[in-house]
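Recall the central idea of this unit: under ordinary conditions, the amino acid sequence of a chain determines the structure it adopts. In this exercise we apply that idea directly, starting from the sequence alone.
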Amino acid sequence: MQLFQNFEDQKSEAALRALLRRSPPKSVAARAHIYLALIALNATEPEVAQTEFEKAVRTDVLIDLPPGQSPKAQILFAEARREVASGPMPAAADSPSIQTATPREPAAAAAVAAQGSPSHLPAYVVGGIGVAALAAGGIFGWLQLEAGNSARNDPTLAAALSDGQPYAQDGLVADVLFGVGGAALITAIVLFATEGTANAPAVAFSAGPRGLALSGAF
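Accordingly, the structure predicted from this sequence is:
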């Protein structure tokens, strides 16, 4: 600014641009653009002056001209204010320290939006398997009970039971189904309670020649 007052416009311009490259505070950067505009007016470059005035206003909306400026400078500065007020407010190109803020969505809200509403379908499926297994276990248990009651009066059936005929294994099948059904119901409850959270268990179904298999990790 002292160089400008001493009519050394070229040195003043070089010093001001070097200052802007050092990322000064907003008020200092805006003042530098004001004096660059005044230097451009002295060089009869009103378009450059207008651009520098606009950069000054975008950098610091409270900036004003130094007192005692020419009417032309005052008119261009007023036009720059109107131009900036009617359009967007990007950061000044020559002021690296001035950056346009970019709003960001809070992390928690983004996570909720990405997850969406939890689906309880896996819990319903596993629960249905558990109920079906318990029902089937009840049937096999009833069959074993009936076979035991009949064996008391039928020596042939009693011998078959002792020999391990397939229908004599109903009790074992019932026990296995009761265990599977109980585990599936417990898994369904855990799935329902933790669905959509980071602690949700991983459950997988598979099918093979021996039937269906349910596996998971908690």
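The first helix runs from residue 2 to 5.
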